[in-house]
Design a protein that fits this description.
Elements lengths: L7 E6 L9 E2 L4 E6 L3 H11 L46 H6 L18 E4 L5 E4 L15
Antiparallel strand pairs: 1-3, 2-3, 4-5
Length: 146
Amino acid sequence: MMQGTGGIEAYIVPKIATNVVGRNFRDRGLLLTTTTSSRIVAHEIGHQCGWGDIYVSLPEISSEQVTGPVSNGRLPLDWNNGPGPEEYYPRGLQQASLASRLLMYGTISGGNDIPVGNVYGLNKEGVLDFIQTGVTGMDRTPSHND
């Protein structure tokens, strides 16, 4: 599942001992071990659920880059920029800053946020488009691919 990150191991067992980090469910336990950060593990699980990487620039393959402020047109299912206390994003927030806060930001220094819907950004081919990075685009029953 993870390329160049040291991998992940998952064990489903009858029960996890009380002194072992893991999770017991009704009839089984789950133990995950990895040598990488939990953010990278979550990011890679996002790929298995159908999400794509989002970038703000990829100078090695494209001259395109994400510029300008966050707007309803670039974030349609997550937009609520006030006025009022229910504002989700500070006024003037740049789209590139928002993209870098997302779990599916395509670099190791990415963030943890998961939006509701797709977000405008740069895909891995260097094309500006709406990237499937949110809950509405999640495949909740992914199958393993080798």
